[in-house]
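Weekly structure sync, notes
Attendees: PL (lead), two postdocs, one rotation student
Agenda item 3: pending single-chain targets
PL asked that the sequence for the first pending target be pasted directly into the notes so everyone works from the same version. It is reproduced below exactly as submitted, 256 residues in total.
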Amino acid sequence: MISETAIEKRQVADVVAERIERLIVDGVLKVGQALPSERRLCEKLGISRSAMREGLRVLRGRGIIETAHGRGSFVAQLSGAQDTSPLMHLFNSQPRTLFDLLEVRALLEGESARLAALRGTEADFILLRRRYEEMLAAHTEESADPREHARLDHAFHLAVCEASHNPVLVHTLQSLTDLMLSTVFASVNNLYHRPLQKRQIDRQHSRLFHAVAERLPDQAQRAARDHIQSIRDNLKEIEQEEQRLVRATMRLEGWV
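Predicted structure, written out during the meeting:
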């Protein structure tokens, strides 16, 4: 229990703020998630109600949390300013960014899979299996919304990354969530309705899941990289097919 008689009030607030920040960095509290009630937080952290309120005030001042009247406190959208920057707009607006981002995904997710196989706990693997099974269940429902497929696909890959226990790696990937979802949606929308590619993606997800869960770091890294590179190659082939079709149609119809 933090002793407010032994530490200045200001120091107490900073200690409380740092404890909550650690929960955010570690992914226990996620962006947009509501904080537990003050009473629950006090019990979990072993602090007084007054210390908790001071700590929350510090976090609000830092822009780490937001408080809505009648709704409580939430983890702020920490990367919002970055996501709306001119650079991020350009990334979103250029189709070629899709392939650049897939290269980044192959690097980051390959390493996160390797670390997950080395560092993952049983709790991590329970969550990973849950995300994997949710994704598989959605893939068997042909009428499901492709965007829901994309969200569950992304959630599976994020669960792998969280099992790496590297907060910087996790938050780097989370900061690219919108761009990541654009690549996942592109693969789902363009590949999952093609039986051969769908079976290939399902096998790749299975390899990745089992390599991480069975603590095989080299195989996990290779499975993650092979999966992303395969998506990139398939999407490039689809793009080339579309370009060939456009050229052939223009020749057929003539060009005025």
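Discussion points:
- Residues 80-85 have pLDDT under 50 and may be disordered.
- The longest helix spans residues 217-253.
Action: rotation student to compare against the earlier draft before next sync.
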